[in-house]
Structure formats: C-alpha cells, structure tokens
C-alpha cells in the first residue's frame, strides 16, 4: 500500500536528509516510525502525502504517485501534521466544511470518538487547548476512514490519561484494508498500539520489522551483570540489576520494550543491521 523504492530527499541536492530509502508497508497494520529529532521523519511522511517531492526514486501510495495530488488519492489519505491549524469555527461547522471531501466519512463514528475524548462540542476550535485540538483532529482523521492515515507526533500536547485514550481509540479504528503510520520521538506513547516498527537514523532505515520479528531476534529482560556478556546491545541500571537488550541466541520469549529497543539501535546500529539482515 505504501512503497518507497530507493527514495532520496533533501532540501538541496548537495545535502540529502535521507538516501536510497526502500520501504514496503501493508494494510491491516499500525506502524511506528521512530527516530531522533532531525532524522527526517516528518519529511518522509510529507513525501508520502505529496507535500514534498523526492529528489530521486519512486513513491507509491495506494497505487498513486503522491506528488500528483490527484483527487482519488487525496480522498483516501489523511495526514495529521505535527503543527496543526484549526479555524475559528465550531466542530459542526468544521464537519460541514471538510467532511464532504472524504466519501467514507462517518459522522456517528466521529461523535463517538469526540465523546470518548471528552471534548465539548459547542466551543469554537480556537477556544480549545492544544491537546483538545489534537484530539478533535485525531477523531476527524479516524472518522474519514481513509485507507491511509499518516500521523506526525499526534500525542504532543496530550496528558497521560489522554494518551491512553488515544491508544485505545486508534487501535479500535484499524481495519484490514487500512494502514496507519505514526511518527513520534515519544517512544513509550506507542506501547501496546503498534505491531510494526521503522527506525530511521543517519539517512537510512535501521529496522523495518514486525514486533514479532523483533522479539524473535532480541531479548528484553533483567540481568544481574552485563560486564562480560557479549550478547548485550544496550543496558541501563535498575533496582534488580540491569535492564538489557540482548541478542536472542536462545530464542527466549520476552516483551518488546520500545524505548530500550530504540536506545539499542542508536547505540549499536551496525550490530542491529547485522542481526536483522
């Protein structure tokens, strides 16, 4: 559904943000796109949405070339940018204005999400807090029922209870023919939500796998000592020893810790690439 073939992009030809990226993402999944600030996550999403154009390579989203911005492409993709703007109108006026652009928009679904997010519907959008605006836009995006939903830092501005609501609502909106891609640097916000992960660092994709594959190849647990253990990729002190990410040579079962995984990838990119080749 989303395919990038050797895509390179930069704001000038002499300084590329990423180079020769190839990605293949399928419907029926919620993917997490992780990377440090400045790694190119937002630019990558904007290339997928047709708001930025690659210097070379091919981008295919749902059978369309995004940069052409064809109506059939636009009505089946929704993009939530990191920095949002909402006009000085009520929620009903917002629906009246924008919902007709999305043929599969479900108003009942939208109001259900708004209720679950505990948003007052009569207030003007500009009178809401930043977190409330984010929740309104998330509810609208999910209710469009587009095949592709791209979200850039959607949990910025949300408090802890709202982040829990966000995970619950987004996971309930996944359908077999829908693909959701969430970019964030707040790694823990994606716990119990995503089933696939992409980590972008230093102009390349270091990991693009399902969490099941990650759990097969890496082990997440606590060790009494890590000093002489060559399997350890990343560790940090804890009350019971060391929380560690290790090469899973014995195929032990463990639960993927996204934050520790991200730290392991940043600390040992070469070994990670070797393990996941």
Detailed description of the structure:
By secondary structure, this protein is of the alpha/beta class. It folds into two domains: about 1-200, P-loop containing nucleotide triphosphate hydrolases (Rossmann fold), CATH 3.40.50.300; about 210-275, no CATH class. The chain is about 30% helix and about 30% strand. It contains nine helices and twelve strands. It has a six-stranded mixed sheet with strand order 5-6-7-3-8-9, with helices on both faces. It has a three-stranded antiparallel sheet with strand order 2-1-4. It has a three-stranded antiparallel sheet with strand order 10-12-11. About 30% of the residues are buried. The mean pLDDT is about 95.
Compact overview of the structure:
The protein has helices at about 40-50, 70-75, 90-100, 105-115, 130-145, 160-170, 210-215, 260-265, 270-275, and strands at about 1-10, 15-25, 30-35, 55-60, 75-80, 150, 180-185, 195-200, 205-210, 220-225, 230-240, 240-245.
């Amino acid at each position: 559904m989303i395919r990038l073939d050797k895509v390179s992009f930069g704001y000038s030809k002499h300084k590329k943000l990423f180079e020769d990226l190839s990605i293949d993402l399928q419907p029926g999944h919620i993917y997490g796109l992780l990377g440090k600030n400045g790694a190119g996550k937002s630019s990558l999403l904007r290339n997928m949405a047709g708001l930025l154009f690659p210097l070379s390579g091919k981008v295919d989203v749902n059978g369309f070339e995004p940069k052409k911005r064809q109506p059939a492409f636009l009505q089946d993709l929704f993009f939530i940018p990191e920095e949002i703007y909402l006009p000085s109108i009520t929620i009903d006026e917002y629906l009246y204005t924008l919902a007709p652009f999305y043929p599969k928009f479900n108003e009942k679904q939208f109001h259900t999400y708004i209720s679950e997010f505990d948003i007052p519907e009569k207030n003007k959008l500009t009178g809401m807090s930043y977190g409330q605006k984010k929740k309104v836009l998330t509810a609208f995006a999910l209710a469009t029922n587009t095949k592709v939903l791209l979200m850039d830092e959607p949990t910025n501005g949300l408090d802890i209870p709202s982040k829990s609501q966000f995970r619950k609502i987004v996971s309930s909106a996944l359908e077999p023919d829908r693909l959701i891609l969430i970019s964030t640097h707040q790694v823990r916000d994606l716990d119990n939500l995503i089933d696939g992960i992409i980590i972008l660092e230093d102009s390349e994709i270091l990991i693009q796998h399902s969490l099941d594959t990650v759990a097969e190849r890496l082990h997440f647990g606590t060790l009494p000592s890590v000093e002489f253990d060559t399997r350890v990729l990343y560790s940090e002190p804890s009350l019971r020893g060391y929380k560690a990410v290790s090469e899973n040579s014995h195929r032990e079962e463990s639960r993927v810790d996204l934050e520790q995984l991200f730290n392991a990838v940043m600390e040992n990119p070469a070994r990670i690439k070797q393990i996941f080749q």
